[in-house]
Amino acid sequence: MKISGSNSVKPLSLYIHVPFCKKKCPYCDFFSVIDPFLIPAYVDGVCKEIQLGAGMTGSGCQALVHTVYLGGGTPSLLSVSQTAKILETVYQVFAVTPDAEITMEVNPGTVDAAYLSAIRQLGINRLSIGAQSFDSAKLSFLSRIHTRDQVFETLSGAVRAGFSNLGLDLMYALPQETSDAWQTDLDTALALQLPHLSCYMLTLEPGTPFYGQYKNGYFSPCDPDRRSDFFVHTSRVLENDGYCHYEVSSFAKSRQYRSNHNTHYWERGAYMGFGPSAHSFLPGVPPGPVGQRFGVRTAPGAGAEALPGIAGDAGPVRAWNMGDIRAWLDRLAVGGLPWEGHEILSPVQEMMERIMLGLRTDIGVDVNGLHREIRALMDRLAGQGLGVFFHHNSADFRAHRFRLTRSGLTCLDSIVDAIVRKIM
Ligand code: SF4
User: Fold this and answer.
1) CA-based, 20 to 30 A from 55: which of 176, 346, 372, 377?
2) Considering Cα of 42, then 264, then 347, then 360, what sign does the dihedral take?
């Protein structure tokens, strides 16, 4: 059901993981399978899981859904009618705001103009297009299924379908990638004047084919100094062109084109994930009838001893779904929640996540509510790195809100490590 906003209910985001790909990319560690015959069963299963999820939040009426994100995998492998069935289920069982951001990840080479037009009619109003590059050699290295021309076809089909809120994913810092090659990708993207760009560095994730090739000496990854140079250059070039660098990898032409869904994650809002391997995060799930549905009884308060003064009580719950699609289907077939596990975050975990996620963004971290030792550490770090790693904005500083500069973002991991060492 679509309803108007209310102050008395908390915003909720929904993530729907569509775990199918035409082919596995050698760098990817997201869960997906290449068996399209499972798609019909998946669609039935995910609709059932959405219904179960709504039941857990009191028929969905205790929260207003303001973003829905179909991610993957490759959601654009679903047919229009399969996508419609999933979205209709969401609208039937959750309260969705009329201006909700409904995003779908689409991959060039899997969609045509008619498909894009049809999903626009379904209410999808934001597209994230997995281009990765316009360079044929880079696309080939990444084993992508699409060509440079298909990226442009997808973009023009999206614009003709009426999508004004859309963005591209681009990847850089590939082994031996030259500055010129990345600049050409950036120039091509800039010429398109898209509302949103996500620029990611290639990372070699353990367990992926690329990681094995790297370990076996087939290629050397881009070295850390070069990665920092790429990052700083990317940020500078895009900001000079009018983009706001609002999160480590995210750039938007204006506030209205920021990803509301991802911002909700970074601000630690509640979200429910559906589909194999999807995660859910429910802040402050109380003990009692609702909490018991999540398996929450009394929070252990772990970490309260490590940092005296932090009360241990029922904390936020994080849950993760089974990653095996058949096990996920089997669990749903008997009416069970397909969770593989869940944890109640301790106050220390909660505080760490708040710092880590806040520092990724241009919103930064408000240290006022943090434990005094962490606040003192943040004060010290910010004082030492003021104007270099932390923004020198006196209003922010007085308010104890710390934001990293571009150079600071290149040291994000080290800064977080320093904080973790202090806490743990
Ligand atoms: S298409 Fe996307 S989700 Fe699928 S394997 Fe490639 S990177 Fe991973």
Assistant:
1) 346
2) positive
